[in-house]
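Supplementary notes for students who missed Thursday's class. We covered one full example, reproduced here. Read the sequence, then the structure, then the short commentary at the end.
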Amino acid sequence: MSWHGSDRRSRLPADWQVRRLSVLKRDGFQCVAVLRDTGARCTAPATDVDHIVPDDDHAPANLQALCRWHHARKSSVEGAAARRRWVSKRRPEARHPGELA
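Structure (token representation):
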């Protein structure tokens, strides 16, 4: 993730490194993502700690250990959804050209 222009890091709690290590230990330093094709847990080492529900809830129950690939994929999906919400707020719903006034 590009941190350029983001305030995300400043919103992390002062003890983020302690919380991060705690989550990694809890999850056995292994990615907790479930593979769609097999339904098995990812076997890659966890490198990132992710917020399950995006926002500023830093409680352990809202944090999970993910490998870099799964974290990037999840963040990409969340970013795309946020952009769609932003665009839909800015543009009025288009009327069909054949619609009568």
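Commentary. The mean pLDDT is 87. The CA atoms of residues 16 and 92 lie 41 Å apart. If anything here is unclear, bring it to office hours.
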